[in-house]
């Protein structure tokens, strides 16, 4: 079995197969348990792959070398979000100013609230800086954390956790606040839960997905500019 594993682990395509097979399995598992965000396919697949890498003694560079084609596809997948946006372009134009204001307010609130809570609980400065960009998609969160002095890996982890929590709490909040418009639901999910929220929004409708994708992009852009300024103003 050891020889068998060494042979396949050395093949680049092996890790693509492992990644895709794990995600297919976790997607099936998530549907079997009712689609709960607690067992989000991305989080469960991530955990299983980490365990596999630990058990086999495989370093991340070896894994990434084999699975980097999937990483490459993140670009086209993100660009593809422009398709539903184009389909609802007229409505977005009419709401552009309120959306920009909501996005700026949401980005500032997300950063300041998490910093305030973490500071009150005694978190270190490095942790505060890693938490600040937690509401944007992981690649942007990593870049912001590097720029302001946080831990990029920690920022990526916080972003994933934030996305899962947002998907978990959103349906309940929508019911409590009596939010029925899919555009509003989608924008809220994209703003607070980035890629996780966008994937979840498409389960409501393409309209919700379009507005979620818009919010995800705008929030990433706004946060990248505002968070470093807020950090300097707070003296961190």
UniProtKB/TrEMBL annotation:
It holds the Pfam family LrgB. It is a multi-pass membrane protein. It comes from Marinobacterium marinum. PANTHER family: PLASTIDAL GLYCOLATE_GLYCERATE TRANSLOCATOR 1, CHLOROPLASTIC, PUTATIVE SEROTONIN TRANSPORTER. GO terms for cellular component: membrane. This is LrgB family protein. The chain crosses the membrane at residues 12-29, 38-57, 69-87, 99-121, 154-174, 186-204, 210-234. It is found in: Membrane. Its main location: membrane. The keyword Transmembrane applies. Keywords: Membrane, Transmembrane, Transmembrane helix. The keyword Transmembrane helix applies.
């Amino acid at each position: 079995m050891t020889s068998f594993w060494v042979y396949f682990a050395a093949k680049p395509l092996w890790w693509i197969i492992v990644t895709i097979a794990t995600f297919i399995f976790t997607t099936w598992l998530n549907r079997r348990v009712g689609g709960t965000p607690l067992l989000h396919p991305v989080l469960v697949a991530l955990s299983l792959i980490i365990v596999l890498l630990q058990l086999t003694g495989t370093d991340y560079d070896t894994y990434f070398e084999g699975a980097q084609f999937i990483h490459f596809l993140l670009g086209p997948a993100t660009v593809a979000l422009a398709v539903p946006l184009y389909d609802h372009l007229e409505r977005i134009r009419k709401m552009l100013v309120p959306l920009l204001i909501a996005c700026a307010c949401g980005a500032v609130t997300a950063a300041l609230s998490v910093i305030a809570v973490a500071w009150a609980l005694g978190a270190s400065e490095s942790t505060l800086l890693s938490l600040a960009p937690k509401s944007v998609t992981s690649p942007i969160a990593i870049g912001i954390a590097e720029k302001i002095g946080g831990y990029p890996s920690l920022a990526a982890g916080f972003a994933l956790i934030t996305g899962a929590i947002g998907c978990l709490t959103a349906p309940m909040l929508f019911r409590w606040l009596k939010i029925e418009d899919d555009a509003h639901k989608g924008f809220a999910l994209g703003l607070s839960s980035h890629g996780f929220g966008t994937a979840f929004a498409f389960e409501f409708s393409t309209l919700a997905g379009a507005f979620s994708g818009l919010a995800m992009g705008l929030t990433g852009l706004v946060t990248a500019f505002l968070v470093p300024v807020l950090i300097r103003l707070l003296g961190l």
